[in-house]
Amino acid sequence: MPRAIAVDWSGAVTGERAKLWIAEAIDGELQTLESGRTRDEVIAWVCERRDAVPSCVVGFDFSFSLPSWFLDDLGCSTIEDVWAHVTNHGEEWLRECPAPFWGRPGHKRGPEPQLRGCEEGWNVRGIVPKSVFQIGGAGAVGTGTLRGIPFLPALREAGWAIWPYEAPTDHVVAEIWTRLLTGPVAKSSPVGRRDWLRANTSLRGRLLRTASDSEDAFDAAACAIVLSRCDDLELTLRLPQPGDPREGSMLVPPSVLDR
Fold first, then answer.
1. What secondary structure letter does DSSP report for 101?
2. Would residue 209 count as lying in a domain?
3. Range of the domain at 26
4. E strands of the chain, at which residues?
5. Neighbouring C-alpha atoms within 13 Å toward the C-beta of 6
6. For residue range 137-195, what is the model confidence (pLDDT) as tens digits?
7. Fewer CB within 10 Å of terminal CB in the chain, N or C?
8. How many domains does the chain fold into?
9. What are phi and psi of 258, to 5 degrees?
10. Is residue 195 part of a domain?
11. Residue 100: cis peptide before it, omega within 30 degrees of 0
């Protein structure tokens, strides 16, 4: 599966067209790097790619589920229950920020466990996965998750296998953690982004400038390139995942860890 698409997602209320980036790579060579779409338009584009390419893995950088203890409290016994509940209540959670959600003014982090099993233990030079319960403040990832999960059924309906909730096919959508794929890099620095791209890719000219212009563009481009180089990707997708199956997992090819 040498073709990979990476979507740098955003849950922003405004300006989403500038923050959402799509990158597509084949065998480590970047083919497409684009912004300018809404969330609905990004999903429509990915759905259309299902019938346009013979095989592909698509990585989205938002969580496909939430911690199991919270799912128990919600009464969600299947991942379909989870996605339906988030679809019905996600905007309410974002608006009212009830515990265990936090990050909005006046809503501090509570004592509840913050991470899913697949997120625990990772550390890339001091950077660790963020909690989906954080929906405000620096580094908040919860907003993107709550505005991303409702699209997963549409991707499944279009023919994409949503990993690891169903057996992988030639067309797979999976959750990625961009930091794990890019490794140590000063993403906030244009120079750091450009140096990483020059050292790890063959990008030059316009594509190099576009990919290094912003963190969003960089994440999409770098992740698509790295994923498309993983010769163990198909094997990784077929490995059983530990823990509560409702929580899902991040796609972590062992070859990425060996760099």
1. -
2. no
3. 1-186+224-259
4. 3-8, 21-26, 29-34, 56-60, 161-162, 171-175
5. 31
6. 878 899 999 999 999 999 999 999 999 999 999 999 999 999 999 988 888 899 999 99
7. C
8. 1
9. -85, -5
10. no
11. yes
